[in-house]
Design a protein that fits this description.
single chain, 319 residues, alpha/beta, 7-stranded mixed beta sheet, 6-stranded parallel beta sheet, 10 helices, 28% strand
Length: 319
């Protein structure tokens, strides 16, 4: 076995999942400030699909107009520290960690101290890999953008997906009364995560019900902004973290329209919030939901399954 090489997923052109290839690349070198991780699990996100397809097209202004500048994918991971640079003080070889990185659909990755935290012993690597993007989106969307306060009423549209399953548990940990919206097959799962109320969207339309909410966290974008604002209390906030791009642009244009505001949102990976999530995981207040695992060679199938929109929680890659 060549110890200087590693397997990684690579794409050299935009397109559907068939553009992905499993290739051998040079194993990352350890920099003075870097940490070499052996990746034991990674998770797939809608962000990976957008980079792979190059859609919406404005993403290509950053990612590359005709073909991707960066040919690797993956932003969430969990693994074991293989080696550390001379300036690294917080971690040592053998430490089990989770966090965010670029190019996590691979066997190894080089990260900084700020991008990872120690993995709690009470969760698996697969569960830990599910956390970074989805959990921080839920945490920052509710706490920072929604300014969630104990006792407030929160509705989570798309409660059974990656962000939604974290959002239910985080909102409960922050003291909210939570309503989850999902399909019939996910009702019991959403209730088991702590939702106080569950709406089956195949039977009810939450935008036409009399109940009002202080925060709506929208992971789907399947209702108009006007319809979603209608169910907000005065001063309420619609936080948009998923759905069609026109939905997010519309929210930007209409923010000052009424005292019921809408704001599109993307999470930022911060060490401080990874620490918050580690504490919630250690306490058992948040338990990551893993739908299924794929091998690195089956990353295309994992992304294809995610894109269908039926995943319960997170979809995981295990190199």
């Amino acid at each position: 076995m060549n110890v200087t090489k590693m397997n990684a997923i690579v794409y050299n052109r935009y397109g559907s999942a068939e553009v992905l290839e499993l290739q051998q690349l040079e194993k990352p070198a350890v920099t003075d400030d870097g940490i070499l991780l052996r990746i034991l699990a990674a998770s797939v996100n809608p962000l990976d699909w957008h980079f792979m397809t190059g859609k919406p097209y404005f993403m290509r202004l950053q990612a590359g107009l005709r073909k991707p500048k960066k040919t690797t994918l993956g932003v969430d991971m969990a693994g074991r520290v293989e080696a550390v640079g001379k300036n690294v003080t917080k971690f040592k070889p053998g430490d089990e960690v989770f966090g965010g990185s670029s190019a996590s659909f691979a066997e190894y990755v080089n990260v900084t101290e700020k991008a990872i935290v120690l993995k709690p012993s009470n969760i698996s690597f697969e569960q830990a890999a599910a956390v970074a993007i989805a959990a921080l989106t839920a945490l920052q969307g509710l706490r920072d953008k929604g300014n969630l306060q104990p006792g407030q009423k929160v509705l989570i549209n798309g409660a059974a997906g990656g962000v939604g399953t974290f959002a239910i548990q985080i909102a409960k940990a922050l003291g909210a009364e939570v309503t989850g919206v999902c399909s019939t097959r996910n009702v019991e799962m959403v209730r088991s995560l702590g939702a106080d109320h569950v709406i089956d969207y195949t039977k009810e339309n939450f935008t036409k019900e009399p109940q009002r909410y202080d925060i709506v966290l929208d992971n789907i974008g399947n209702h108009s902004l006007i319809a979603c604002k209608r169910v907000l209390n005065p001063g309420g906030m619609l936080v948009i973290v998923g759905g069609p791009i026109r939905h997010m642009i519309g929210a930007l244009l209409r923010i000052p329209f009424t005292d019921r505001k809408a704001i599109p949102f993307m999470a930022k990976l911060t060490n401080a919030d990874l620490v918050v999530m580690r504490e919630l995981l250690e306490s058992g207040k948040v338990v990551p939901v893993v739908d299924r695992c794929y091998s690195l060679n089956d990353t295309a199938a994992a992304l294809g399954y995610l894109q269908l929109g039926h995943a319960q929680g997170k979809v995981i890659i295990t190199p």
